[in-house]
Specification:
39% helix; Alpha-Beta Plaits; four-stranded antiparallel sheet; globular; alpha+beta; 4 strands
């Protein structure tokens, strides 16, 4: 629509099926770059894609015509196909169902970027479950723990 200008900043968080440590370092960055390419291909703005072996954080500038759930569906589907086509694993790769989506103001971009960039260091101190529940509580999102990701302790 002419004369409409906006940018919505969303951080997605999603996990490998079974929370297995399958996103291996030798090829993890290649997958993250592929995810950023998927976002660009959907005419959205990839700010940063990073994560650890069992989950990913994707931070995007989203145009209002793009549905939050459609973009994460496409990111996950395309990344799954890429991982499987490249035969990075000896078996089929898949993501867990669901995701978290958290919105931010323009003034928070640098802080969110740094947080996502430092995932390896961050997860030396905090488990994914603790991190994810912290997000839900910080954003005052009601949840039932039985519907959250499969957790490994």
């Amino acid at each position: 629509m002419a004369g409409t200008f906006s940018q919505i900043y969303i951080q997605y968080v999603f996990a490998v099926k079974g929370r297995e440590n399958l996103l291996k370092k030798p090829w993890r960055d290649e997958v993250f770059k592929y995810m950023a390419g998927t976002i660009k291909g959907k005419n959205q703005k990839p700010i940063i894609v990073n994560g650890v072996a069992d989950h990913v954080h994707v931070f995007v500038g989203l145009k209002p015509a793009m549905c939050i759930s459609d973009l994460v569906r496409d990111i996950k589907n395309n990344a799954t196909n890429f991982i499987n086509d490249q035969k990075f694993l000896k078996r089929k790769f898949a993501w867990q169902e669901g995701y978290g989506a958290f919105s931010y103001a323009h003034s928070q971009i640098d802080n969110v970027y740094q947080y996502i960039a430092n995932q390896e260091e961050h997860h030396r101190k905090k488990k994914f479950k603790e991190e994810y529940i912290d997000f839900l509580e910080k954003f005052e999102i009601e949840y039932n723990e039985k519907y959250l990701f499969e957790w490994l302790d």
